[in-house]
Amino acid sequence: MRIIVAGGDGFCGWPTALYLSKQGHDVTIVDNMVRRKWDDELRSNSLTPILPLEERVQRWEEKTGKHISVYDCDLMHYDFLKEIFKQVQPEAFVHFAEQRSAPYSMIDREHAVFTQTNNVVGNLNVLYAIKEVTPDCHLIKLGTMGEYGQPNIDIEEGYIKIEHKGREDVLPFPKQPGSFYHLSKVHDSHNIQFACKIWGIRATDLNQGIVYGLHTDEDEHDEGLINRLDYDGVFGTALNRFIIQAAIGHNLTVYGSGKQTRAFLNIKDTIRCVEIAAENPADKGEFRVFNQFTEEFSVLELAEKVQRVAEAKGLKVSIDHLENPRVEKEEHYYHAVNTSLIDLGLEPSLLTDEHISRTLDTALKYKDRVLKENVLPNITWK
Amino acid sequence: MRIIVAGGDGFCGWPTALYLSKQGHDVTIVDNMVRRKWDDELRSNSLTPILPLEERVQRWEEKTGKHISVYDCDLMHYDFLKEIFKQVQPEAFVHFAEQRSAPYSMIDREHAVFTQTNNVVGNLNVLYAIKEVTPDCHLIKLGTMGEYGQPNIDIEEGYIKIEHKGREDVLPFPKQPGSFYHLSKVHDSHNIQFACKIWGIRATDLNQGIVYGLHTDEDEHDEGLINRLDYDGVFGTALNRFIIQAAIGHNLTVYGSGKQTRAFLNIKDTIRCVEIAAENPADKGEFRVFNQFTEEFSVLELAEKVQRVAEAKGLKVSIDHLENPRVEKEEHYYHAVNTSLIDLGLEPSLLTDEHISRTLDTALKYKDRVLKENVLPNITWK
């Protein structure tokens, strides 16, 4: 298949592009390299040293003989984007190319406005390009489990059957997102659903949990293909951030009680889920929603796992309960359905001590690159 | 009360500003006059001749002795908006200042992107200005009944209690908006709800039906204060558009079967609902939703009413079923709850033949101003 991976220079996009290329697909990366610019803005970096994108794909071609095309394009630039659609004629468009950090969107008004404009308009442009150039192209859009918030009922996959006053309907699952970033994904979901309805576009919204891990089979033991790894208070996420904190001898920074429960998955499952979606496209006009995660954990549970694995390696690790910089429920019901992708063939890579140990080894290898002043959260929701 | 009416030069905003001023409130209009520019862009006009805003408010002051301040400000310009908040110190901010036409948002990609950016970012700026300058200010935001779409269950006021798999919660009512414009209002609602939660802002989302009518007590028999009246296929809405079509001898343009049912209210009730919301502010941190309409009609029913009233005046009127330019259900269940505003004191001005007759008389008076080529819909959802 001809597949565009937008955001193919990022943490999820890069290993997805490699995996789809290895599977024999004709992969094109569209990326404006902005994730690297945000590192500059925040004076931060990836724990792992990553090559420029052009060198990464060259290395991949040398190693595998497989070519990945690259366009340095911002999805906000519609004319260029449309031209790419004309040249590539994609059968699937995998859309990772959004600002994906909740804290980044909460820095101030400018960052909130940037996040919503960038994500919503970029996605609208993709919808118009599909409509105008390749109406059969399957949009595979990365959403987030955070769109749902933490309702006191089970979270279904995108829709819920509601009985009310003697009547019933199947309606979009109510959304209660927790940051201007998460809100942008809710806006996207509504826009895509409408485009499917009026233009007959086929789309899959992958409401992804929090991704952990680093290595996939494609980059294993190849420094030039290594994925980025974020540890800072802005782009670092629970579990990966804890592992790196353990590696540098920093307390694990749990926000509040840590009883917040979230959905998680291994980066290896991210790439496999995208492949499953691509191989099983949504119907014309269908807005399909999959909940893309494999397990649920509380944040404190993860910190304790990391502590145990790190201590077995002789590292001293304590857990620190910081004042929660976010406005969120700490004690709440949480249970979400995730059967669709498993029914289509996903075999989850569950979290094991061995996996934590493996990522911790990589973190120890590169620990001198960590800028310690970036580890603590410095952005509050208030 | 010190009240800002944003969009105070428009069809709903102008009579609201006059009414609140008459009631003794200290009214400030914020408007960038863009509604008049859209007339230029679309080569259209208001049926009624309207004075420039500065002259309108001067006329009001001459007539009543009451002063209305005016700022020519685009809500996209945050620094100016914030300065206005500092100077006015508003206790309520009535937010009409959005692009409000569904067809306009469907013209093409540029208009879809403009509508969502203008509405969503303008509203984010208002939220930040309230947070930063006047945290107690009550945001009275115009939403639309179109946010809900046409679900097969009764539409509640913003929230619905859902029982699911043995658990229950009260959650935001699911949204199924039918244009990029309606989507922008859904995005706004989600953003406001979040801002209420994290910053303690007080907000009322008025999910308004389709507004008909023209005159209010404040402009009655005063040409200089007259409200604008839209009849074109882009900004003209059902009922008002039919009345003007009857006046110029044009067929009434019903889209499809006309069995689409929608919620309606008189412009006199719009201004009263805003007053009720202002006098009964939401609590700190409360995101309150009222459904602001008084009656439900099918589009065909309204055309038939107008036909009957017009024929009684000796006008010849036929009803034309055009191919529906929109993608929408024509046969559907529709029933929405609207008790909150009535419980707070709204006494609905229901639709009477006399009311249609009165607006028709005004339309006949100005019928030579109508640009007939603008009457038909020329924007399709496909």
Chain-wise SSE layout:
Two copies of one chain form a homodimer.
Chain A: E1 2-6, H1 13-22, E2 26-30, H2 34-41, H3 53-64, E3 69-71, H4 78-88, E4 92-95, H5 102-105, H6 109-132, E5 138-144, E6 159-164, E7 167-172, H7 180-199, E8 202-208, E9 210-212, H8 240-248, E10 252-255, E11 261-266, H9 267-279, E12 287-292, E13 295-298, H10 299-312, E14 319-322, H11 339-343, H12 353-365
Parallel strand pairs in A: 1-2, 1-4, 2-3, 4-5, 5-8, 8-12, 9-11, 10-14
Antiparallel strand pairs in A: 6-7, 11-13
Dominant shape of chain A: globular
Note the gap between the termini of chain A: 46 Å
Largest interface: A-B, 47 and 47 residues
SS elements, strand count of chain A: 14
Low-confidence parts of chain A: none
Beta-strand content estimate of chain A? 15-25%
Question: What does the radius of gyration of chain A come to?
Answer: 20 Å
Average predicted local confidence, pLDDT of chain A: 97
What does this 3D model show about the protein?
The structure is a homodimer of 382-residue chains. The first copy, chain A, has 382 residues and is α/β, with parallel strands linked by helices. Chain A has twelve helices and 14 strands. The first copy, chain A, has a seven-stranded parallel beta sheet, sandwiched between helices. In chain A, strands 9-11-13 form a three-stranded mixed beta sheet. In chain A, α1 links the parallel β1 and β2 (26-30). Chain A is globular and about 55 Å long. Chains A and B meet through α6, β6, β7 and α7 of A and α6, β6, β7 and α7 of B.
